Amino acid sequence: MTPRTTQLSAAVALVAAVPTAAWGLLGRQDTEGFPASELDYAYRPSDIPDGTAAVIGVVALLLAGVGVTLLVRASRRGELDRRWWEVLAPLMLAGVIVGVGWRVLTAGVLGANIGAGLTILFGAPVLAGLLLWALVRGVRLATHRPAGHYRRGQQIEFAPREA
User: Fold this and answer.
1) Spatial CA neighbour of 96 closest among 72, 75, 118, 123
2) Which pTM does this prediction carry?
3) At the N or C end, where does the chain have fewer CB atoms within 10 A?
4) Rounded to 5°, angle at Cα 69 from 75 and 24
């Protein structure tokens, strides 16, 4: 596996694992003390037991940790342009919003789920902004190379050497 393939795999794993980890580790947010048949749902949650969701969340968290470790190591070695963190960071934050937001949207409550409304009202525009930022920045980084771009460890000459 080439370093570039490893970095791409680590980035994809990281971005996919963050919402899963947030969802799994947060757990169900149902109102306690009432059976599920008496609760109202904005969206019905999946039938995955809390224990299984927690295990999935821990595995996703470990996968995200491996992805971050590989990408940080590549950044420090100069193999990954550090500007790509300007794409990855908003995608990770968007993943947290998606994972937590899904738990809020599927929470069983008595009456209206005000948290679901607030999640849609405020979370959706923030999520859209983060995704738009990551898309624009990613396309720009992929298509433009700034003048004077150099890799870490490469010598930079400001003026020609004289003999």
Assistant:
1) 123
2) 0.82
3) C
4) 135
